[in-house]
Amino acid sequence: MSDSAPCVPDAADITDDDITHVDTANRSCNAPARTSLLLPALAALGAVILWGLSFPAMKVAVQALGPMPLMWARMMVAMALLAPFTARLFPSRTVAVAPSGAMERRGFWSGVPRRHRLLLLPTVLLQPCLYFLCESNAMQLTTASQAGVISASVPLLVGAGAWLFLGERPSPRLWVGVVFSCAGVAWLTLSGGAGTESAPDPLLGNLLELLAMACAAGNMVLVRRLSAHGGHGSFRWNPWTLTALQTVAGALFFAPGAYATLTGMGQWPADVVLAVLYLGAGSSLGAFGLFNWATSHLPASSVGAFINLVPVAAVGFGWLWLGETLNATQMLAAAVVMVGVALGTGRRR
C-alpha cells in the first residue's frame, strides 16, 4: 500500500550468505506496513463514533424542531462548510476541440457522462432526501438506541440490493444473515411495548427507521454503479463532489422547513443548537469524510466490519446522553440482529 521501494532485494540477487540479512530486512519492513494501517483504522473508528452519536443528537433536535426545519438547518450547515471548496469540487477542464485542436475551457458538467446524470437523480433522492425524511420522523417515535440497532441491517440490505440490481451473486451466508437480522428487528420492534413519552410509537418508528436503512442501502448500490460506469473514458467521481450534490439536493428537498428555521432559531436552546451544528458538520461531513478516506486505504471487508459497530456506539451514546436503556428482551433481540450481521458479512476462511 506504500509507494516506496520494497525493502527486500530482487530474488536473483540473493545469495545464501544474504538470507539472514534479507530476513531481518523483511521483518523491519513489515512493522511500518502494519503501522501504516493504524491511521485508516482510527479514521474508520472515528466515523463510527460520529455516526453513533448522531442518533441521540437527532433525537434531541427533531423533538424540538420537527423533521423539515431540522433537516434544512442541517443541510445548510453542511453547505456552508463546503462552499469555500466549490471550485475544487466542480472543476472546469481544458479540452482540444476538433478539427483545429484549439484548447477550450469547459465546465464540470460537460465532462459528466449522460448515464451518470440519469443515475444521479435517484441517488440523491434516496439519500439524503428520503433517508432523512424517514429517519427524522422515526426519531420522533422510537428511541435512539433501537434505531441504532436497526442501522446494523445496512450491510445486508446492500448485499441484497447488489444481487437484485448489479447481478452480484450473494453467498448462502448472506441469506441466512438476512433472515436472522429481520427476525431480530421484528423482535426488537414488537418488544418495545406500548410506548413512552419520548418514544410514543416504537413499532411505527422502527419500521420507518428500517425504511430509512433501505434508502441508504439503495443509495450505496447506486453509488457503486456510478463508480463502475466511471471506468468508461477518463471521468472519475470525487467522493466529496457526490457529497456536495447530495447536500444541495437535501437543502432543496427540505426547503419547506426554511421559514420555521429562520423565524425560530433565535429561541433554540443551547443543546438544540449544538445538536444541529454537530449533525451538519460532524455527522454529515466529518463521518463521511473519515470513512471515505479509510475506505481508500483499507480492504472493503475490513471497513465493513467497522460499520457493524455503529449500533454499539448508538446504544452507548443513547444511554449516556438520553438515559435510554434496552430491556432484557430487547438486548436479546439486538444480539440476534448482530448475529445476523456477522453471518451475512463474515468471510469463510
Quick overview:
The chain contains 15 helices and two strands. With 349 residues, the chain is mostly helical.
Please, could you describe this protein's structure?
By secondary structure, the chain is mainly alpha-helical. 70% of the residues lie in helices and 3% in strands. It has 15 helices and two strands. Strands 1-2 form a two-stranded antiparallel ribbon. A hairpin with a 4-residue loop joins strand 1 (93-97) and strand 2. It starts with 18 loop residues before the first helix and ends with a helix. The model is unreliable at 1-33 (pLDDT under 50).
As an assembly, this protein is: single chain
Q: Look at the structure and give the mean pLDDT.
A: 79
What about the largest sheet?
Answer: 2 strands, antiparallel
Distance, first to last CA? 23 Å
Number of helices: 15
